[in-house]
Structures are given as C-alpha cells and as structure tokens.
Amino acid sequence: MRVHVVGTGGRESALRWACRTSGHTVLADDADPLTDPLTDSLADRPDLVIIGPEAPLADGLADRLGEAGLAVFGPTASCARLESSKAWAREFTAGLGLAGPRWAAFTSSEAAEAKAWAAALGVPVVVKLSGLASGKGVIIPTAADPIAAVAETEAAIDVLVAQGEIVIEERLTGPECSLLAFCDGTLATPMPIAQDHKRIGEGDTGLNTGGMGAYAPAPIGYSAESLCAEFVQPVVDAMREAGTPYVGVLFAGLMLTPDGPRLLEFICGSGATETQAIIPLLDGDLAEIALACVEGRLAEADVRWSDGAVCAVVAAAAGYPASPTMGASITVPTDGLVFLAGAAPDATGVLRVAGGRVLTASGVGSDLAEARADAYAVMAGVQFDGMQVRRDIAWRAAGAVLASYSAAGVDIDEGNRAVSLMKAAVQRTHTSSVLAGVGSFGGALDVSSLKAFDHPVLVASTDGVGTKVELAARAGRPEVSGQDIVNHCIDDVLVQGARPLFFLDYIAAATLRADVVARVVEGMALACSESGCVLLGGETAEMPGVYTAGSFDVAGTLVGVVEKAHMLPRAGAAAGPGDVLIGLASSGPHTNGYSFLRKLFEWLPLDAQPEPLDRPLVDALLAPHRSYLTALDGALAAGRVKALAHITGGGLMENVPRALPDGCGAHIRVGSWPVPPLFRLVQDVATAASTEELHRTLNMGIGMVAICSAGDTAELQRLIPEPTWVIGEVVVGERVVTLV
Predict the structure, then answer these.
(1) Helix 478-494 and helix 514-530: axis angle, to 10°?
(2) What's the rounded Cα separation, in Å, for the pair 325 and 319?
(3) 247, 494, 686, 698: which has the fewest C-beta neighbours closer than 10 Å?
(4) What's the Cα-to-Cα distance from 703 to each of 582, 585, 643, rounded to whole Å?
(5) Confidence of residue 439 (pLDDT cuts 50, 70, 90)
C-alpha cells in the first residue's frame, strides 16, 4: 500500500517505521500533513491515511479526508471530543458508568466557583485544561501543609482558567498505565499495556511533559483484555449506537487505585511515547490492521504481539518543557532504533533541534531489563547541547513484580531453618553459666567476678551490616556502615537490658584502601562515643577474588553487661495478654531489607527525590541505624519495660515474637504510627508485595518495640523523651504477629 502518516513527531516516526518494515510505501515525510492528501491527483493518492496528532483530529481532518473518498485511520471530530473536551468526556463517560474521580468543570469566568468547589471537596485535586494541551495542561498541587495546599490549588486554577475551560478532579493515587486499542467502530482490540513517565525530573518530579519515556508490556496485575472490556469497548458501543462510529486508536489513561482501576483521560490516537514502546512489539502488519479497522473487519485482522519488551527513552531539548532551546546540532548513532521527533535538517543537511522532545531511543529485548539496557546503550550515542534524558525510565517496574524478599534473592525462611539446624550444635557448648540467648544475635554469660555489680551478666552480640554496605560503598559513604554495625549490636544487647562495654570490628575488602577503612572506623568511633562504649580493636582482611572491586564488608562483636535482676525479659514479670506494644521510630530501614530495596530502586538514580520523599533517595536509604540506648535509659531504670524487640531482619513479623513467651502472640495495628516518606514510597512502588510481606521485610518506621503493662503505658511514654505510639497488644495464641 501507499501510506500517508499525518504528523511529524516521534509517534509518527514509529508508525512510518512500522509501515516500511512491512514493505509498504510511505509517502514523503515533508508533505503538508493537513492538505497534501486532498490535493494529490487521484492516481497519486494514498491507499491509507493514518492520522497521528490530536489537533488535526479535533479540527476534523478525518471527516474531510473521508468525504474525499480516502481510507482514514483516525476518529472524526465528533469522536475526538473525548480528548478535545475533557468536560464533555467526563459527562459522556459518567453516563456510561465508567469508574473515575469526582470532578467538575468551570468556564474561564468561574475561577471563584472553581476554588470554592475544590475547597468543599476536601481532598487533594488535579487541575486540567479541558481542551487540548499536548500533555502539558495539567497542574498537580503537591503541598503537604493544608494552608499551602489551598494556596497552590488556587494558583493552579488561576493559571489554567486564564487559558480556557478547566476541569478539576479528585486526585487519585496509585500507578498509572496506558491502555491503547485498535477500534473499527464495533470492536476494540487492546495492545500491550504501557506505562509512561510524564514528569521532566527523575523520580517522577517536576513539570508535566508530553512524555519522557515509556515501556511495554507493563506488569500491572490486570490484563489488557479485561481493562479494554471495562473502559474502551463501552465507549465504542455507545458511539456506534449514536451513529458516530469510532475508528482509529483509542487510548485510555488509567490509574490503578487501591479501589480498582479508574479512568483519568482519553486520548484519541496512540500516545506519543507509548507508541514508540508498543509498536516495535507488533508481530504483524500495522497498515493492514489499520485498513481492516477502516473497513470494519478488525475481527479478521492478524493482530499479534511478540514476546519480550520495549523501553523507549526520550531526549528533550534544553529548557523543555517550559521554554525549549532550538538549533543545537544533533549526533545520532547509526545502530539502534531511533525515532526522530523535534529534529530537522537545516539547509546544509545538519540535523538540528527543532522541538521540545527531540528524539526517542527504543530498546528491544527478551525482557524489560534487556530492553532498558539496549535503549540506554543507543541513547549513549546521541549528543546535542543541553540534552535532557531521564536515567530512570521503567524504575517502578521492579516494584510491580517484587512480591517478596525471596524474589530479591534473600530467603528469610531458609535463614530461619539454618538457625534451627545449628541450635543443637550451639547448645552442646553451653554450661550452667549461660543464662539465655539473644535470639540469633548473641548470648548472655554469668560473670560474677565483675565486682561493681551484685550479679553481673555479660551479653554479647555479633552481626554484620548486610547488603547496605554495597549501597554505602557505591555512594561513597563508608562511615555510615561503621555507625550501622555498632548501633545494630548495641540495640541487640539492649533487648536483654544490657549497656555496652566494648566493641571489636572486622572489615574486609578485595583491596583495602586506607582512607575507606579510616572512614568506616570513624563511624564506629562516633557511635561508640555516643553510647559510652570503648572501641577496643579489630581486624582488617584483604581478599581479592572474594569481594568485587570497590566493595567492602563490615561485621563486629559487642559485649555489654547487665545486673541479673534487671535482665529482660523481666524475671517474674513476663509479657502476657493485655500488655501493650509501644513503638519507637526507626531512623530508616536500618540494616534490614536492602536486597529488596536495592532491587526495588535499581533503575532510579540515587540523587532522585520522587514524592513523597523529603530528601534525595540516597540520603533516605543511607540514614545510619540509630541506637535506642539513650531513649530507653529512663524507662529501663524505672523498671517499666517488660521486654524489648529490636526490629531488624524479618521486620515486625519476625522480631516481636522473640520478646514473647510461649502461648502469647501479638496484634499490631497497621496505621497506628506515621509511616515515614521512604516507606510510603516503598508501599507505592512495591505494588506486588502484600502488607504482611512489607512488614516482614522492612521495619516500616518502627525500629524498637517496648512491651509494658497497660497501666504503665502513659508513664512509660512519658519516660521516653521522643514521640512513641501504641501500636498493638499482646494476645493469647501462637507466638506470631497478626496485622490488624
């Protein structure tokens, strides 16, 4: 066929590429997209016109070309109101019962009414231009403070209402996805689900754009077929019944909220970035499918999709999206799939920046990781002054499939089994002086020779920092690992009621660097001095071939002492049903769950700051493991604490039971403490992980749990000089935690 593709963006480049790949003749790209098909002689007219951009559709180009006898793949102006008027689209879809947010529309003279409606709604909102805005007519107020949020919302209304009719919608939460479907006026056939990245900044921050990248298929937990049946086919049916059949691609932007999928918007064509991620997966003839839609026989078309994945990464001009700078010369690699958009040759043939989104590199692979690596390898060969490229495209995809700690390569159950298997061997070494073990962290030894005590007991803990050291090494912050190991061990002996005496360290690396070792030891010394503990000595080991280049490992042993009468759990006053669990805040993930976290954020740059983080990701992840010694001093001295649980590997689910006697379990109320921003981000991104799995993998904001009698709750909280929360209670039952 002779195919004419209307439009000059990256989407249209991908459509032309697909048609050429199937052997069709694609008419010259420099033809006038609005008039050329009409002025050609009948002999030279195309067999098929595919309309890409939304503006010509809203302007009625499909109507005019159809009246001229051309086969046009693209909806009429009447159908295109789904995109050209968000107010009309909301009215229309509400009549069909499609699930969406609460909303209202306001004219350019109704700013005051719009502000009043938003205030009365009482929840965060999104402010949108009702008409076409190339993906940039949306403002999302994000201020956390209620007064600031009102001011930001009113400012957004003032900005957009000055440009025309607006729609204000309840702000929904959850991951977004893009559902595209071929439509022939009767039938809608979905394409693979895609997810795009609208914000200019990494971590999905900054201004909205027309799209900075996309990937497909997206692992969202819903099938494309079910979503198409819920959100697209009803629209096609209604328009057919109204006598205005929808022919072309219909794009439904959806948000996967905790209450199910919700419609955000319709786009009357294939989304720009999504197309460049989906079309390379088409294992069929795009032009033949489009013609089948025009002729009403989509059911007979060969619509097949290849296995694998595509990741599309956009390179944008300097100043985009606010004020892109034009004219920079562009270098494009000869290998790889590159779709030009805002790029055009000058009079001398030099390719130059001519638009905001300049080009897209689309990587293809057997899975998303391979496709992503391919896309960024191609993008590495693109050069122009001021080029903006997000380094984190597809960064949320890992969280959509990372359902458990074991999926990140760590098996908690296998670790527990190993402890069980070694317990018998450990117990064979015990004498009558051994009074108790500290879970899997160390032991308690009766040393009556410490004359300063009536009956002194030594409590020891040996541990390591785990995979957090890899992140510390990569970020150039080895001192954090020094603080982590000392404070971790202090908290481990604290659960027996012991104060630290001395610490011994162990540092190993493939190649020892004196400066790195010195910084690790400085972190240890800081933590020791803050807790009145002596850093007695240690060991360093250089083991090439065992550790990877640039990495190091840290471990250590801490010995503490406690009067036997003051040991925890308290003798004669063990925790029992009705006792209260009081949570103390963690300073971050501490030293647990980092294999999960590193996998979860593998494709997000460490300096990114996605919502709701209040600091860059690297700072949130590398907050040092805190010591609870000072916070619990007064409470322990007053004898109000029955038992303590240090929330480390295994989270609340595994560690709280360590502090309970047989016959007792615990109920913990999720939501009874404020979840810190990092853990809220984890909940947002790790969509495949259950609440139980997250609380078993991470501390979720609670680093230590104190157990006391219900009558001592208020006094214990008063004795702890920081905010604490009643997070649950001890109950009769198996020694397990139940989240309620």
Answers:
(1) 30
(2) 6
(3) 686
(4) 11, 6, 14
(5) very low
Max Cα-Cα span within the chain: 108
Give tens-digit pLDDT for 149-195.
899 999 999 999 999 999 999 999 999 999 999 999 999 999 999 99
Closest CA to 529 of 468, 561, 482, 472: 482
pLDDT for res 418: 47
Q: Hey, where are the domains in the chain?
A: 2-73, 101-170, 173-399, 431-567, 574-740
| CA atoms in the 13 A half-sphere facing the CB of 492 | 32
* C-alpha distance from residue 731 to each of 1, 165, 580, 581 (Å): 74, 58, 10, 11
The CATH homologous superfamily for domain 574-740 is: PurM-like C-terminal domain (3.90.650.10)
Work out the angle at residue 359's Cα, subtended by the Cα atoms of residues 354 and 361, and round it to the nearest 5 degrees. Answer: 170
Tokens 């070494």 correspond to 429
Reading the block at residue 639, the tokens are: 């004898």
Q: What is d(CA 493, CA 439) in angstroms, rounded to the nearest whole number?
A: 10
Whether the pLDDT of residue 624 is over 60: the answer is yes
Please answer whether residues 725 and 666 qualify as being in contact, where contact means their C-beta atoms are separated by less than 8 angstroms: no
Q: How many CB atoms lie within 10 A of CB 692?
A: 16
Question: Alpha-carbon dihedral of residues 415, 417, 422, 426, nearest 10 degrees?
Answer: 80
Q: Nearest-CA neighbor of 139 among 502, 151, 621, 147?
A: 151
- Provide the mean pLDDT of the chain: 90
CA torsion angle for 227, 231, 236, 241 (degrees, to 10)? Answer: 130
Region 219-233 average pLDDT: 96
The architecture of the domain spanning 101-170 is 2-Layer Sandwich (3.30)
Render 313-334 in DSSP notation, one character per residue: EEEE-TTTTTSPPP--B-B--S
Give yes or no for a contact between 320 and 343, defined as CB atoms under 8 angstroms apart: no
Q: Which long-range contacts (CB under 8 A, 24 or more apart) does 26-30 make?
A: 27/2, 27/3, 29/5
pTM of the model: 0.85
Burial class (CB in 10 A: 0-12, 13-18, 19+), 683: middle
Fold match, 2-73 / 431-567: no
Measured CA to CA, the distance from residue 523 to residue 484 in angstroms comes to 8
pLDDT for residue 228: 97
Report the C-alpha gap between 656 and 650 in whole angstroms: 10
Q: Which of these, 137, 125, 123, 129, lies nearest to 164 by C-alpha position?
A: 129
Domain 431-567: assigned CATH number: 3.30.1330.10
pLDDT surpassing 80 at residue 427? no
pLDDT category of residue 518 using cuts at 50, 70 and 90: confident
The DSSP bridge pattern shows strands 580-585 and 534-542 to be unpaired
Question: Is residue 424 exposed (0-12), middle (13-18) or buried (19+ Cβ within 10 Å)?
Answer: exposed
Closest CA to 243 of 293, 181, 188, 185: 185
**CATH code of the region 2-73:** 3.40.50.20
Indicate the fold that domain 173-399 takes in CATH.
Answer: D-amino Acid Aminotransferase; Chain A, domain 1 (3.30.470)
* Half-sphere exposure at residue 327, Cβ-oriented, CA atoms within 13 angstroms: 1
Q: Give all strands of the β-sheet with 166-170 in edge-to-edge order.
A: 103-106, 166-170, 125-129, 138-139
User: How many beta carbons lie within 10 A of that of residue 352, not counting itself?
Assistant: 17
One-letter amino acid of 318:
A
Nearest to 79 by CA among 266, 230, 252, 231: 266
CA distance linking residue 345 with residue 350, whole number of Å: 5
Would the pLDDT of 433 be above 60? Answer: no
Confidence of residue 40 (pLDDT cuts 50, 70, 90): low
Burial class (CB in 10 A: 0-12, 13-18, 19+), 691: exposed
Radius of gyration of the chain (CA): 31
In terms of C-beta density within 10 A (0-12 exposed, 13-18 middle, 19 or more buried), how is residue 729 classed?
middle
